[in-house]
Amino acid sequence: xxxxxxxxxxxxxxxxxxxxxxxxxxxxxxxxxxxxxxxxxxxxxxxxxxxxxxxxxxxxxxxxxxxxxxxxxxxxxxxxxxxxxxxxxxxxxxxxxxxxxxxxxxxxxxxxxxxxxxxxxxxxxxxxxxxxxxxxxxxxxxxxxxxxxxxxxxxxxxxxxxxxxxxxxxxxxxxxxxxxxxxxxxxxxxxxxxxxxxxxxxxxxxxxxxxxxxxxxxxxxxxxxxxxxxxxxxxxxxxxxxxxxxxxxxxxxxxxxxxxxxxx
Length: 264
Fold this sequence. Notes:
Layout: E1 31-33, E2 43-47, E3 60-63, E4 66-69, E5 82-86, E6 92-101, E7 116-123, E8 139-144, E9 156-158, E10 162-166, E11 169-171, E12 175-176, E13 189-196, E14 200-205, E15 208-218, H1 223-232, E16 241-246, E17 251-260
Antiparallel strand pairs: 1-17, 2-5, 3-4, 4-17, 5-16, 6-13, 6-17, 7-8, 7-16, 8-9, 9-12, 10-11, 10-15, 13-14, 14-15
């Protein structure tokens, strides 16, 4: 994702509640499968211009044990950015997913969305998104596939309605690249994310930290995020929803798992 459009919403909930307010139903230190390999139980789509829960044109589905994001039933993309939200919110956890990019981009998809998807963490709840809202206020771990020619890092950072601290300073650019290598073709890539509430978020590939930042927070330059901050009484983000993106290029996920961590 490379941009964020602001929206007003009628109902807001706090994104910055204490860690105890987030789901801790799993045994700490044990991996739980957020995707069961059979269906979309536990997940809810929110696709732009469509109601919450409407899986427009079967964008998200499960086939052969793989969670697929596809556009075979689309005539044209028309900026119908979508997100598939997991039912619970989390604060301190480690997440691991396996993904790959396949096929061709949907007709009408923006150039920047070629072989582009993402995982949104510390996100707002989907029921609080406007019908025409493109992206949830969140921290995005951007997933990019190589174009077959050029260097193109993955596990990057994008910040729809948010900011972070990096190297001890408030970091306001919308997207920043990681130090990862490029993954060309339809190969499976394993990405890990370590989230420690408001303290630190790390992007990990092949056992190495490729990007790290602290103090995730709402960006009051954005009207929607500003209202969320006013409702919460703080700009700081302590946790939130997790969602997977649909941004016009087909992508597969064959594993999405999470380990709840002890509070630090």
